[in-house]
Amino acid sequence: MNTRLQVEHPVTECITGLDLVELMIRVAAGEKLPLGQADVKRNGWAIECRINAEDPFHNFLPSTGRLVRFQPPRETMFAGEAGQLLGVRVDTGVQDGGEIPMYYDSMIAKLIVHGRDRNEAIAKMREALNGFVIRGISSNIPFQAALLAHPKFVAGDFNTGFIAEHYGQGFRAEDVPHDDTDFLRALAAYVNRKALQRAVGISGQMPGHEFTVAEDFVVVTLGPAGSGGRSPVKVTDFVSQSGSSAVQVGSGRYEICSKWHLGGARIRGTVNGNPFTAQVERGVGRNPLAVRIIHNGTRLDVLVLTPRAAVLHALMPYKAPPDMSRYVLSPMPGLLVEVAVQVGQKVQAGERVAVIEAMKMENVLFAAADGVVGKVLAGKGESLTVDQPIIEFA
Known about the structure:
Blueprint: H1 9-16, H2 20-28, E1 45-52, E2 54-55, E3 61-62, E4 65-66, E5 69-71, E6 88-92, E7 99-100, E8 107-115, H3 118-130, E9 133-135, H4 141-149, H5 151-154, H6 162-166, H7 181-199, E10 216-223, E11 226-237, E12 244-249, E13 252-258, E14 266-271, E15 274-284, E16 287-295, E17 298-305, H8 307-313, E18 327-329, E19 334-339, E20 346-347, E21 352-358, E22 361-366, E23 371-376, E24 383-384, E25 389-393
Antiparallel strand pairs: 1-8, 2-3, 4-7, 5-9, 6-8, 10-11, 10-17, 11-12, 12-13, 13-14, 14-15, 15-16, 16-17, 18-25, 19-21, 19-24, 20-23, 21-22, 23-25
């Protein structure tokens, strides 16, 4: 038996209605337990997700830096109030503007839900993850969303080898497929039109030449090699309902109602009468006009353009990122504790070249190909940023 309080103790607190922290303090003070084993009853189903500052798409490497935004989902259960159940609880010690340093464990929060049964708990957790806003650093929320949506996990058919079996080659964006990507495009068009409508009220417009917002747009999906698919959309407002619009994407029609306001990172509302929670970012990556929609672990980056702008955009050449294959780059922020090669040294693929320490872990970097070290660009003891060059091959 491990006699200290475990990270997962909120799960026990939810299904038993007992405050384990209070009971441990009372026992430590010499009091007797006020209950017997027969008094401990189990009620419902609880799930906890550890929210870690790490990048699941890059082998779960630690992610440090400033929390530009940290907005957990709304809590309805709280530590120390074990009688308030069937809801959402967040245990954390960080907040907006805080710094996630390299010196400690990567866990920054615990997200706990309690439902009447397992299916209800899974549904609550998926919705809570949709509303957990973290900006400035990477988090493992997409991976948590993928696990909760996996058919075998939902069916209860899993064991301790689940991750090795299903994600043995690492975790990729393709491992979080969305069941309706047209909804994400519709939501991007909806958000973009709401933002444009704010411009209608700009003062100083010449009479007869006021800014008007069109209904027809083209949603251009962005990918690693430039633009992807193009989807014509039509956004029509409901006159009778403020904040409601009908968005036509192909043959699909999405009636979206939300009180989302410009600048809000979280968008809640209904689509075709069903409630949803998603996240919105405007101006992402290298494109200030891009809109990012995050829902159920899927991240979709798009441009919402007028039909004419879409025609012109298709003519723009794609500027590929610079070739960095001759460099060994730091995959994360951390402390460079070892440089294992010297200038002029011949290195073979798979040979150890450097060691970075971050969040109580040592990460060894290996050469991706044979080569000769041309320059050592960082020294032992130096604090590194993401993608900072450490070694350049000749």
